[in-house]
Amino acid sequence: MREITTKALERASALGASYADIRVIDERRESIRVKNGNVDNLSSSMSRGLGVRALYDGAWGFASSSQVDNQEVMAVAERALAIARASARVKRQRDVELAPVQPVQATWKTNLEVDPFDVKLEDRMELLLDADRLMRQQPGIRIASASMSLFRENKVFASTEGSYIQQERTEVGAGIDATASSGLEFQRRSYPSSFGGDYACAGYEFITGLDLAGHAEAVAREAVALLSAEQCPSGTKDLVLESSQLALQIHESCGHPIELDRVLGQEASFAGTSFLTPEKLGDFQYGSDVVNITADATIPGALGSFGYDDDGVPGQRVTIIDQGKFVNYLTSRETGGELGMAANGTNRADGFNRIPIVRMTNINLEPGDWTLDDIIKDTKDGVLMKTNKSWSIDDKRLNFQFGTEAAYEIKDGSLGKLYKNPTYTGITPEFWGSCDAVAGPAEWRVWGLPNCGKGEPSQTAHVGHGAAPTRFRNVKVGVGKW
Amino acid sequence: MVGKDRAMAVIERVLELSPGDQTEVSLHVTDNSLTRFSSNYIHQNVAEKDVQLSVKVILGKKIGTASTNSLDEDAIKSTVQAAASIARLQKENQEFRSLPGPQPLPEVDCFVPATAQFSPEDRADAVAMIINAAKAAGFQAAGAVSTGIREIAVGNSLGVRAYNPVTSAAANTVVMSGTSSGFAHGNTRDVATLDFAAIGRRAVDKCARSIKSEKVEPGEYEVILEPAAAANVLMYVALLGFSALAVQEGRSFLAGKLGEKVFGDNITVWDDGLDPRGMPMPFDGEGQPKRKLMLVENGVAKNVVYDSFTAKKEGKESTGHAGPGRFGFGPIPTNLFFGAGDATMEDMIRSTKKGILVTRFHYTNPVHPLRVVVTGMTRDGTFLVEDGEIKCAVKNLRFTDSMIRTLNHVDMIGKDWGFEGAMGLGGGMIPALKVSKFAFTGVTEF
Predict the structure, then answer these.
(1) What is the pLDDT of residues B160-179, one digit of tens each?
(2) Are B4 and B163 in contact (CB under 8 A)?
(3) B427, burial (CB in 10 Å: exposed 0-12, middle 13-18, buried 19+)
(4) Which residues contact B244 (CB under 8 A, 6 or more apart)?
(5) What is the ipTM for the molecules in this complex?
(6) Which residues does residue B167 pair with via DSSP β-bridges, in sequence order?
């Protein structure tokens, strides 16, 4: 491999690149989806390719190819340089300046107990079919489905600054859902979360630990119960979010606005910009004093953990919100360099054919000292919302609206009725400013989200969010009449 | 490009190697380039060459699929073996009948040499035209100019053989002042038809008219949806409703409603992969011919779209809507046409007592798929219309409403179409719409 990476970097340098890097990536995926007793999809895919990124005259070029050999790598390096030269035709007065990084020779690998690709396919199918069968035992279930994904990425990163890093990341994820329908009502419940379940950088032990079959009956029962549940009432109430919904709330209203490329306008035409403009750094009250948010790529087993990003910067833990105050961004070498900040290891690409852009790692609301039970006991008129169903937020990340699969009334310190079609809406700093109770470490867990979209051409990042049940005061719930 | 001969040789090789009772092969070869700009300079500029070879091996009723991005003999062999091994371990799918057989395929020229030859310098010059329009107004432009070539080949053991190269080109921009933004875009197979300077000027105009914005209260308003915004209405209805799989699973609002009136009299929608006014493509992901299929005629639901799997379950034939290279995803309409009306944008504005004009929506998402209740934000040019005139720009609004209800309250339909993409799943020719009732449920700060 060193021969290929060396050829690319030497060729880029010879053509005038002031900086270049190359990533050579092998990916393997296997996915199973079971639906109503049938194995609806069973597939395996392999992918291999290389991408060369080069700076020429202060401007970027990138080219990639699925052909990995000594001849193609030279052609790809030349194409990257030709593209960089074209970029330099429409550049700013100021050249791209990369924040400094120490060159590193390193290897990194996901810790796992059971290699998921070694587990027999029959056993993996049976695990899902078992959960599927148990869900369908509940009368009224129209669609039961269960899915599992395995992913492994072997990546070599080399740069003209002397870094050479080999990483192997293994990811697993699984989940179940049951759908009940009747007339114009259609209700789904999922476990452990929606949209494919929960994901981690781990081995098969993570999937067996989810105990999908053990939760099948309860999931199916609640899906059916939702058909006859009351519509979530409209009004202003105290809102308690269980941790998987809070994970998405953190993702959309904290994780994205702290991406420095968005702040600098690099995503303006597509994903949007951010309300957290540079003058707010260190001087903006993002939330209440119980709101402590970190970006931490070092959490063992979490989906957003890794050894080094695609700038060759080590994965690290950074405080983003400190007792409610906004103190740091997610930065790459390019965006950090622009504001004179350090790169904090968040520049990641979705495969060999994409450039790295600023991505979340594991963005966490640090645990507090409550329990969910105590939060409920302390709430007079509220709603507990569970499991994400829909999400939407404006292009500066201020006005958001979420829907969840289910909700429970909280009345005078006790859980009450089940509600269907729950929604809530708010404005980011007001919402986080109303946060007054966060559950403690015993109920805190990291959720893996494998589907964070950003960039053109589109890229999907795998990120994590540590969260525990949390309360927000006076939130608008039950949006719209429909 | 690999060319037709090489692509079909790969298809034949897979079929020769496969031990399956039936086998399907799909090959996509791509060469895409995209130049991205922000703050009036090119900040990202990329190119990729990739292939996707997908093999479906069927043993009896057991289906296994595998894919690779290499066309080496070793990769082809191991992919066929992987698909066969999976099929052997698979459970029988009782709903599977057969892959489709060959059908005569129409010839549609989807390849434009000018697009294929568009160079990095050409893209940079195109970007400069957009940026220059923004600079002239003292604004900043962000956006992307892209061109791509995709060769698509499909074959199966029952004799299906299909190959077609397609080109695509797109440009989009958001032009920003300190307090406002404006959006414009274009999509085509022929890059020569994109007027980059005009795209820049349209976005500049929107941005300039939004510099000072007022806050209006959420509530029910008349709305004028430009084609990019109107596309969201139709796309959600199409993606959530018009798939036979969604109907069979009871998650479509059209389940049991075919032949019934579901939208207003003035709503007619069809899918046509052969119409050159859209983004034509002669066959679907299973190599079945595209054709014109009426989905809604004068408000009455006429048809939903089928692939071979969902069609054979009902003893029908595929309508040519298998997803491109996707297995188990279900059929989708990818070449939609929303019947145009006779109104101009000026007519719509003139006839509005008090309403909101929307350039486009952002981050839309279904809240209740069966009722097609969707939420999302406006962005990049939202205006208050009063007494037949645009009165002022307004701060962006959140809507939460049923798209079915929306298509029952369309008062006027634009006479011109815009081509609008749909979340990576094809696209459609969409006119502007004036809707008498549309629910805005929130407002943001800009």
Answers:
(1) 999 999 999 999 999 999 99
(2) yes
(3) buried
(4) B304, B305, B306, B307, B310, B311, B314, B330, B331
(5) 0.95
(6) B149
Residues 93-122 of B with CB under 8 A from A: 93-95, 119-121
> Residues 6 or more apart from A87 whose CB is under 8 A from it?
A56, A59, A60, A61, B35, B42, B45, B120, B124
Beta bridge partners of A385: A241, A407
The C-alpha atoms of residue A323 and residue A370 are separated, in whole angstroms, by 16
Residue of chain A minimizing CA distance to B71: A67
- pLDDT score at B347: 98
Strands A235-241 and A381-393: parallel
pLDDT of residue B324: 67
**Do the chains contact at B49 and A423, CB–CB below 8 Å?**
no
Residue A182's pLDDT is 87
Query: How close B424 gets to chain A, by Cα (Å)?
Result: 10
Amino acid at B378: T
Binning pLDDT at 50, 70 and 90, where does residue A377 land? Answer: very high
Nearest to B27 by CA among B94, B92, B79: B79
The predicted-structure confidence for B13-53, as pLDDT tens digits, reads as follows 999 999 999 999 999 999 999 999 999 999 999 999 999 99
Which pLDDT belongs to residue B421? 79
The reply to whether the predicted model has a pTM over 0.95 is yes
Q: What is the 3-state secondary structure (H, E, C) of B182-226?
A: EEEEEEECCHHHCCHHHHHHHHHHHHHCCCCEECCCCEEEEEEEC
- Contact call for B50 and A66, based on CB within 8 A: yes
Across A64-80, average pLDDT: 98
Mean pLDDT of A181-191: 90
**Residues of B with Cβ-Cβ distance to A50 under 8 angstroms:** none
Pairwise CA distance, residues A391 & A194, whole Å: 12
H or E element at residue B403: helix B403-406
Q: Is B50 on the interface with A (CB under 8 A)?
A: yes
Question: Are the CB atoms for A461 and A350 separated by under 8 Å?
Answer: yes
- What gap in Å lies between CA B251 and CA A117, rounded to an integer? 34
pLDDT of amino acid A57: 97
User: B389 vs A141, B78, B209, B353, B392, CA distance in Å?
Assistant: 52, 65, 13, 9, 9
Q: What is the mean pLDDT of residues A227-242?
A: 97
Q: Yes or no: say if A461 and A451 are a contact pair by the CB < 8 Å rule.
A: no
Nearest to B165 by CA among B100, B105, B116: B116
Residue type, A440: G
Interface contact B178, partner A, CB < 8 A: no
Confidence bin at A246 (pLDDT 50/70/90): very high
Contact with chain A for residue B271, Cβ under 8 A: no
Residues 6+ apart with CB under 8 A from B176: A265, A268, B139, B140, B141, B142, B182, B207
Residue B144 and residue A456: Cβ atoms within 8 Å? Answer: yes
What percent of chain A shows pLDDT beyond 70?
A: 100
Q: Would you state the pLDDT for residue B422?
A: 57
* Nearest residue to B191 (alpha-carbon basis) of B110, B118, B134, B82: B118
Please tell me the distance from the alpha carbon of residue B2 to that of residue A461, in angstroms, as a whole number: 30
pLDDT digits (tens, 9 = 90+) for A220-230: 999 999 999 99
Least CB–CB distance from B120: residue in A64, A82, A91: A82
Confidence category of residue B325, pLDDT binned at 50, 70, 90:
low
Question: How far is it, in rounded angstroms, from Cα B413 to Cα B431?
Answer: 7
Per-residue pLDDT band at B237 (split at 50, 70, 90): very high
What is the Cα–Cα distance from B133 to A481, expressed in whole angstroms?
43
**Where do we find the tokens 């043993």?**
B59
* Rounded Cα distance, B109 and A479, in Å: 48
The predicted pLDDT at position A336 comes to 98
